[in-house]
Design brief:
Mean pLDDT: 87
Strand order of the largest sheet: 1-7-6-2-5-4-3
Helix content: 25-40%
Distance between the termini: 7 Å
CATH superfamily: P-loop containing nucleotide triphosphate hydrolases
Structural class: alpha/beta
CATH topology: Rossmann fold
Number of strands: 7
Bound molecules: adenosine-5'-triphosphate, magnesium ion
Shape: globular
CATH architecture: 3-Layer(aba) Sandwich
Number of helices: 5
Low-confidence stretches: none
Radius of gyration: 14 Å
Strand content: 25-35%
Order of helices and strands: EHEHEHEHHEEE
Largest sheet: 7 strands, mixed
Amino acid sequence: MEIILKNIKDTEKLAKKIAKDLPKGGPSVLALYGNLGSGKTTFTQFLAKALGIKEKILSPTFVIMKTYKLSDANTRIHANDTNKLKQMVHIDTYRLNSAKDLTTLGLKDLLKDKENILVIEWPEKIEKLLPKNTVRIYFSVVSEKERKIVIK
Ligand SMILES: Nc1ncnc2c1ncn2[C@@H]1O[C@H](COP(=O)(O)OP(=O)(O)OP(=O)(O)O)[C@@H](O)[C@H]1O
Ligand SMILES: [Mg+2]
């Protein structure tokens, strides 16, 4: 599926829609591909907002991984039989040297927990670790405010 986001509001709308429609039956994994400045972190900030996370989402480039708890109220809003959400884990592999570093960060365990939503920027480096139901979103810059999004 290909979408043109005309401005940042469109990016927010898309994030809201995806928050409502996360993959079920396992941990929700969103792999965000695209160049520097294409909008991966911006999208993640809107996704967090849609999930009711009040904390400010910073680019995790320097910390590689950051976890945000979902409040109980939101867990209920987004809960259904197969998909209860507990926390959003924001990962940015940009400064990661190898997939081994993420093993150290406990990625495999995070991927086992169905109540997690993982949002991964620069997922190329850990492609092999991504589960089958991973939603892949490709961002590219069209103009200052426009972005092209391809969802697979
Ligand atoms: N429609 C849009 N959607 C998303 N971001 C937009 C849009 N229009 C303009 N922008 C701007 O583009 C920039 C995107 O930066 P962002 O940090 O989200 O990129 P990134 O893909 O996470 O980059 P990096 O690979 O460095 O982490 C922001 O400054 C944002 O305000
Ligand atoms: Mg980013």
